[in-house]
Amino acid sequence: MLDKAVFPQSRRLPQASAVLTLFKPITWFAPMWAFMCGLVSSGAPLLNHLPLALAGIVLAGPAICATSQAVNDWFDRHVDAINEPNRPIPSGRIPGRWGLVIAVIWSGLSFTLALALGPWVAGAAALGLALAWAYSAPPFRLKQCGWWGPISVAICYEGLTWFTGAAVMGHGFPRPPVVTLAALYSFGAIGIMVLNDFKAVDGDRQMNILSVPVDLGVENAAWLACVVMAAPQAVVAALLVEWGSPIRGAVIAALTLAQCGLMTKLLRDPKAHAPWYNATGTSLYVLGMLISAFAIGAHTGGQV
After folding, report:
1. CB distance 15 to 93 below 8 Å
2. Rg (CA), the chain
3. Alpha helices, DSSP H only, in the chain?
4. Given a cut of 60, is residue 7 above it in pLDDT?
5. Average pLDDT, stretch 191-198?
6. Cα–Cα distance between 42 and 65 in angstroms, integer?
7. Nearest CA among 204, 87, 199, 77 for reference residue 145
8. DSSP assignment of 140-203
9. Quick one: pLDDT at residue 211?
10. Residue 143 near residue 164 (C-beta atoms within 8 A)
11. N or C: lower Cβ tally within 10 Å for the chain?
């Protein structure tokens, strides 16, 4: 009854443009970038595997990431009807239960594509889809859990997609250095997710959502985010030197130091400067991901 009262029923089918808006293409960049890092880190010749690479990029962005956005909007539809009534579902551009139907169908199509790319890709996709649903859907609603929300998003957007990119190119379980880099950068991405929570800290307090900034306080959460972002990059720099890529290791160290310099401004006023840091420091972070991927991909088959 609540759905009928809140959401207009003037249309029987969703608008195509509304479905695209629901999928939020702008959010596809992060997993597609991590997937590209996985491709590069595998060391396999890209041109020899171009159809697989393109299929994997579709899997990372327009498939699984788009699914996660649809799932999130469906389970947030009642809140959005109050706070953002122009979004596709509360506005009625996606009427009835079509939001849920689209999320289910896109989950199935995403997993079908993953199956075609191999068992390790299918396994990673299954875990990613499970986390996407657990993040937004009851009874888990990980997005309302201050710690598990950022962790689950970081795993999906960075670690799993990096792993998938390498698995697609290598036709099997990626080599240990590839998995190590994926894990380290996935851990660092938790700090980025914590910074993203700063924009909603006032609303989270009112709704009793225990996000990390609400739980620890904004200043402590900012310090935690900075340490979580910087520490794994320092480890990556040291590992690249150990693995025989001292120049690229030095570049990663320099990028990390530059981020630490930017962090000093962030820490002066975390709420005000978090968007600025995401446009500057986070850009250096993702650049370092690609540089490190090239470092280990330069060795045959990703071996170092």
Report:
1. yes
2. 20
3. 2-6, 16-23, 29-42, 50-58, 66-75, 77-83, 88-91, 98-116, 119-136, 148-154, 161-170, 176-196, 201-206, 212-216, 218-242, 246-268, 270-297
4. no
5. 92
6. 22
7. 204
8. T-GGGEETHHHHHHHIIIIIIHHHHHHHHHHTSSPPHHHHHHHHHHHHHHHHHHHHHGGGGHHH
9. 84
10. no
11. N
Residue 210's SS3 state is: strand
The pLDDT value given to residue 200: 77
pTM: 0.90
Q: Quick one: which H or E segment has residue 211?
A: strand 210-211
Q: How confident is the model at residue 300 (pLDDT cuts 50, 70, 90)?
A: very low
| DSSP structural state of residue 10 | S
Angstrom CA distances, 163 to 3, 16, 36, 59, 92, stand at 39, 32, 10, 13, 38
User: Has domain 15-173 been given CATH number 3.90.930?
Assistant: no
213 or 70, greater pLDDT = 70
Count of C-beta atoms within a 10 Å radius of residue 6? 16
194 in Cβ contact with 270 (< 8 Å): no
Residue 2 pLDDT class (50, 70, 90 cuts): very low
In single-letter form, the type of residue at position 56 comes to: G
Is there a contact between 40 and 86 (Cβ–Cβ < 8 Å)? no
Position 19 pLDDT exceeds 50: yes
- For the chain, the structural domain boundaries read 15-173, 175-304
User: 113: which 2 tokens?
Assistant: 């594509």
